[in-house]
Amino acid sequence: MNKNTLEDNILYIIGEYLWLFIISGLCFFIVNIPLIFCSYVYIKSKSYMIFKIIMVLSVFCGPSILALFYEMNKVIEKNDISNNVMKNFFRGYKKNFFEGIFYWSLILIAYMVFNFYFRNLKPLGGINSEVFRGVLLGSKILFFAFVVIAFDVISVIYIRAKRVIRITFLLCKSNLKIFVEIIAIILIFYYFINSISSIFIIFVSFFCYIIAYVSRPILTETKREFFNIEI
Question: pTM value?
Fold first, then answer.
């Protein structure tokens, strides 16, 4: 079987994608080992000190998530998985390290403020508490979808924080269909993580690939309209 025939083989293609998702997921796991270990200890001990350590370590999720988006966008752009998966991941991790820490810190702060505010907010008169909780959950999903799109853009384009918020908002507004699709993907991903948490490593990289694939028109529009880059 020659190389071209092999690359057209459906089993070969599936194998390549599984390799991509497993290896990139393992890389994500490796760079977050301290956080995962502390999270496990916290589940067992419920120690407030461990919780504070987790909050500090969680900022390093930013670079690893950006590295996954960086790698998946490279795969989609070049339509080639044969490149060194691990090398691409750590190149993206190094390239986006400080941006990842900065943006993830902002997201954590915004989320904590949001959570604190709504935890202390009582349902208004006449509004059922279940409906109120549904509104809060919906708000969190919208926030997460906004963050996911922002991270996809940041992974390949350097943008200042203030401009990221503005550009992402405009992109969500002008690409409402894609925004809704991303919300649906987030909900499906959340369901699978809760149901089959043992294969989280595959799912986290697969999630980033699907998001990068679905939001490709958004990335193209961003490069063309805001940065005059043709892709």
Answer: 0.82
Radius of gyration (Cα) for the chain, nearest Å? 19
| Domain count within the chain | 1
Measured distance CA(7)–CA(154) in Å, rounded: 32
Token digits for 41?
A: 């200890």
**Domain range for residue 139?**
3-227
SS (H, E, C) 93-116: HHHCHHHHHHHHHHHHHHHHHHHH
Give the phi and the psi of residue 79 in degrees, each rounded to 5. 50, 45
194 backbone φψ class: left, alpha, beta (φ>0; ψ -120 to 50): alpha
What confidence tier does 231 reach under pLDDT thresholds 50, 70, 90?
very low
Amino acid in position 30: I
Task: State residue 5's pLDDT score.
Answer: 55
How many CB atoms sit inside 10 A of residue 80's CB? Answer: 11
